[in-house]
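ok posting inputs for the zinc ion job
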Amino acid sequence: MKDEIERNQGTHGDESRAWFECDDGWGPLIADLESKLKVLSPDYTISQVKENFGGLRYYANVGDVDAETSKRFYDLIHEAESKSFEVCECCGQPGQLSRRGKHGWYKTLCSTCAERMNFEPVREAGTATP
Ligand SMILES: [Zn+2]
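and the output
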């Protein structure tokens, strides 16, 4: 039996980092997106890639292309961003938007990862009946 106390080191007042260690689940999603973007615009640049409210946010500049290419470029990004809400951010298994209790922190997780990190599945917001 091994303790995992060492994991609790690094108190920077930001406990969110403590369990943010396994966010490789979107790796394939992002890699797939980038390979498609490169085809459309080899010179595109990435501004920022992050997670926001449980979903992937991918900011990129398409570069010097025509309007049609630009539209397809950003369509691909939007597609990947929506898809991220169905993929566990941790392990890449099918997931769903989950929330961590009192902090109201959102992540897209499979049931296994959600349980491990103390998250609970969130029902569709916005369409819920009162
Ligand atoms: Zn998972």
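notes: Confidence is low (pLDDT under 50) at residues 1-20. The pocket of zinc ion is lined by residues 88, 90-91, 93, 95, 109-110, 112-113 (CB under 6 Å).
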